[in-house]
Amino acid sequence: MALKIIESCVNCFACEPVCPSQAIFAAEPHFLIDPKKCTECEGAHAVPQCASICPIEGALLDSLGEAINPPGSLTGIPPEKMAQAMAELRSH
Amino acid sequence: MDLPVLNIPETAKEGGCSASSCGSSDSQVNHLPDHIREKVQNHPCYSEDAHHYFARMHVAVAPACNIQCHYCNRKYDCANESRPGVVSELLTPEQAVKKTMAVAAKIPQMTVLGIAGPGDPLANPERTFETFRMLTRDAPDIKLCVSTNGLQLPESVDELAKANIDHVTITINTIDAEIGAKIYPWIFWKNRRIKGRKGAQILIDQQQKGLEMLVQRGILVKVNSVMIPGINDEHLAEVSRTVKSKGAFLHNVMPLIAEAEHGTFYGVMGQRGPTPDELMDLQERCSGDMNMMRHCRQCRADAVGLLGEDRGAEFTLDKIDAMEIDYASAMEMRRQVQEGIMADMESKRSTQQKKAKPAVPDGARPVLMAVATSGQGIINQHFGHAKEFQIYQASPEGVRFMSHRKTEQYCSGDSTCGDAESALAITVRSLAGCEAVLCSKIGYEPWEMLEEAGIVPNGEHAMESIEEAVMAVYREMLENGKVDETPAARRANAEM
Ligand code: SF4
Ligand code: SF4
Fold this sequence. Notes:
Shape of chain B: globular
Mean pLDDT of chain B: 79
CATH superfamily of the largest domain in chain B: Aldolase class I
Largest sheet of chain B: 7 strands, mixed
Strand order of the largest sheet of chain A: 1-4
Largest sheet of chain A: 2 strands, antiparallel
Radius of gyration of chain B: 23 Å
Number of helices of chain B: 15
Number of strands of chain A: 4
Distance between the termini of chain B: 70 Å
Mean pLDDT of chain A: 93
Strand order of the largest sheet of chain B: 9-8-5-4-3-1-10
CATH architecture of chain A: 2-Layer Sandwich
Oligomer: heterodimer
Low-confidence stretches of chain A: none
Strand content of chain A: 5-15%
Number of domains of chain A: 1
Shape of chain A: elongated
Bound molecules: iron/sulfur cluster
Order of helices and strands of chain A: EHEEHEH
């Protein structure tokens, strides 16, 4: 069982030092989790540390492949509002 | 170890400085106690005067953050962006030191290195303090400063003191958790993400505690606040009073910058920033209680050079690698150049002081004027070339620097100015509240538009000292009865 970092990661370094299992490492094009080392923070913390500090919605997936921080959950921007704003910008 | 301090000549304590652009006798820096003023008067970010002469740089070594602010988007990272906090090149501590040494060798006016982001320097303690340690060893003449959201501040005070940091900037947008919840959606604290009011309360407590601890250690603390209309604008005067009572030496209120394309919460949700008038009003309200900083340019987190300029592109890593630098002689060069500048500033200051205070009847209404200048305290810029205007207030007490306002540059010097007209209109609008504009030259079209807006264009004081020219224009207005007239009345007269 392990978490996974996907391409929306912005390489902000925040997760790397908070991992109790030293499972996270800098890589190209983005940070990665070594699935053999990741313990999902079991036994060390009540919640996965990487997913608790990561500022990017959707960058971390749980072992089922689902976003731990879905759109809107961290920024507070309703997803439809974001989509609307981006569509408006593109039409300019 | 103590940082060698440049030999700073004693300046007069009161009645004094009407030195241009330092903001006159009422200025932030001259009101400070001597020991603080001596520390900051060659710091370009703290003194309107010093920023024309001394350079600073920021290095981006601290990418991680431990809170989220509604005016920040961690995804945005573009070279054309010039908002605060934005960077294009993340550096390791070794690279940062190399870059700092290279810049300090090529720009001998450099006095200050700051670490401000793109994340929070204290959420990246190893990277931040490693950089400071190496610099204290290799370039002990350079002052070090750090800018933080404050969450990890109390835990970092010992390290900061050890690293010889003499200035810390804390961004404090509120001291009320209710308001905080509208600015900070979450913080990372004790192994959890904490949202809403609870998170905001922890952040506020940490900031205030950190502020007190720093002051106790004798480390200078400046407070930055972002003015967010409808959220904390009414509340910031109280913030100002509180941080002052705890010993912060300077308060810098900055306008919110929010555009949908930045992808920030405020940008996408349509939260507006303050108008220049609103910002200046608030700064005025706070200034009764506090030394206000009025010339902050809100630079990028990796800006290099004099305030308002960014020479970062000259110092990319590959360009630095190609440079050959003799560090020892570079440090000696800095010492000489900076001593020269200090002497120069001092002599300007004392000639200004010798001039008698202008005779203006007490009780005359204060007047705002905009000035186009490219620095050195003189009126030396064409109206159409000004990227920003400096706003001065003339009153019977004298002339003081109030703020600066950015413009759309409508004249780019060629004949293909597409949107010339609308940009000009925007510039004129940005000068709302001013009654005169002093510049070296001005074209016919802007002249007309200014007059229509009730602002008197004035090109008669080219190459003169700003303070003297502003006072001369003020006296002229008094003599002609223009000060009794309200700006609205003048506008009506102009239309007739
Ligand atoms: S879930 Fe825990 S152990 Fe796994 S990578 Fe994240 S922080 Fe490390
Ligand atoms: S905290 Fe998130 S965005 Fe930052 S490096 Fe880790 S996964 Fe990437």
